[in-house]
Amino acid sequence: MRKLELHWQILIGMLAGILFGFGMTYISWGRDFVQDWINPFGTIFVKLLKLIAIPLILASLVKGISDLKDISKFRNIGLRTIVIYICTTVIAITIGLVLVNATTPGSGISNATITKLTETYSKEKDVTDKLDEAAKQQDSGPLQFLEDMVPDNAFAALSDNSLMLQVIFFTIFLGISMLLIGEKKAKPLKKFFDALNEVVLKMVDLIMLTAPIAVFALLANVVVSSGDPDLLLALLKYSGVVILGLVLMIVFYSLVVGTFTRYNPLTFLRKMVPAQLLAFSTSSSAATLPVTMERVEEHIGVEKEISSFVLPVGATINMDGTSLYQAIAAVFIAEALKFDLTFADQLTIVLTALLASIGSAAVPGAGMVMLVIVLESIGFPPDKLAIGLALIFAVDRPLDMLRTVVNVTGDATVAMMVAKSTGSTIKPKVKDWDDNIDELK
Predict the structure, then answer these.
(1) Between vectors from CA 281 to CA 275 and to CA 287, what angle results, nearest 5°?
(2) Which residues fall within 8 angstroms of residue 178, CB to CB, at 6 or more apart?
(3) Buried b (16+ CB within 10 A) or exposed e, 208-227
(4) Residues 378 and 349: beta-carbon distance below 8 Å
(5) Which letter does DSSP use for residue 425 in this model?
(6) How far is Cα 95 from Cα 247, in angstroms, rounded to an integer?
């Protein structure tokens, strides 16, 4: 009997988790059972992915840079990556603004619904925490993100997943320095990182064996933790606009892949399904990064020198789905709370959402912190910020899951574009966890 492909196994796990979660919501002890006995397996899976994210970036990026014969090629890769990421983010924000202005979902929210949402969510710890975090970011200087990129302690940066840009900076610095000392002197260190890269990739294969069980646990917990169904229905129009925008972004990526890289868009999406499903389940680009790199390198055929730079950078600064959501959410909140927006305000949303996406954490809920910054940039009353977040808090988690799928798909699309433009595409070579098992006998 033929073994089911990984994406079908994960999809079955997701559907089973959703159905199981719904079933548990109708049992008095169901929620506690899922959170105590089921959710830990999903949490362990996410921790394992985060565990190997930084070692994978370190090993693969050093290997990619040290394999380069011409250092100017790396400069071209970096410049093209940043420019394309900025362009796709602007396109995402524009799509969001066009949709929300055309559909005006905020105008359909009644005062009673606003009051109920405010009473239910405005005092939530997650809401107040995000307001505090946004205030800290607002107080920082205009070049703070450049300061934050440079670590003062390499080991401290390597021990913290939220310092992804610092890890990338240190790794690039190390890789370039290895090139400059010459191949002969760098050979021992290069061999170490080559071996480390292979080991970490094998760890990805082993972790993915548990993916179907993990997504079952993660989705079951999401379902039993969902809020008031009546409030979710009240926000259905807003959610529909966000989802439509995210779908249009996937269509945009498919068109780019088909026209620019000449790669079959359907094949591209099919090969990215495992990474997309994990992005949906974890709501974290950083946690999904090891799987995204594995799919792009081994299944699509992007050389490591491209994927090892483009994808980690993308997980940190490229948040197309999140930026689109911010544009829609900002206008939705303004409409619902009767705050008039001018054309200049909407241009400000484009610029602020773009800048806010650079350097923001690739973790669940970062989008709401960025949203506060966007709202403040257009002069939204500070005393209504908590109310604004409360309006969308009920549906933020499921939408966060969906926009993370778009973020990951966008990262892969840009990696393919950069690889195509630099002639760095190769024939895919899929590896499995038991490829070398015969050597142990």
Answers:
(1) 60
(2) 62, 65, 66, 186, 189, 190
(3) bebbbbbbbbbbbbbbbebb
(4) yes
(5) B
(6) 11
In which region does residue 423 sit, left (phi positive, over 0), alpha (psi from -120 to 50) or beta (all else)? left
Rounded Cα distance between 229 and 158, Å, is 42
3-class DSSP assignment, residue 302: strand
Residue 249 to residue 320: CA distance in whole angstroms: 8
For residue 374, which amino acid is it?
Answer: V
**b/e per residue, 411-431, with b = 16+ CB within 10 A?**
bbbbbbbbbbebebbeeeeee
Find where tokens 């008039």 sit.
Answer: 340
Q: How many CB atoms lie within 10 A of CB 180?
A: 10
Give 439's DSSP letter: G
Report yes or no: 428 and 299 within 8 Å, Cβ to Cβ: yes
pTM value is 0.91
Q: What are the structure tokens assigned to 21, written together?
A: 């979660």
303: helix, strand or coil: coil
pLDDT in tens, 301-346: 999 889 999 999 998 888 899 899 999 999 999 999 989 999 999 9
The whole-angstrom separation of Cα 390 and Cα 134 is: 15
Distances (CA, A) of 372 to 24, 128, 129, 330: 35, 11, 11, 9
Helix, strand, coil percentages in the chain from 3-state DSSP, rounded to 5: 80, 0, 20
- Measuring CA to CA, which residue among 174, 203, 184 is closest to residue 74? 174
pLDDT digits (tens, 9 = 90+) for 36-89: 999 999 999 999 999 999 999 999 999 888 877 677 778 889 999 999 999 999
Per DSSP, what are the bridge partners of residue 425? 302
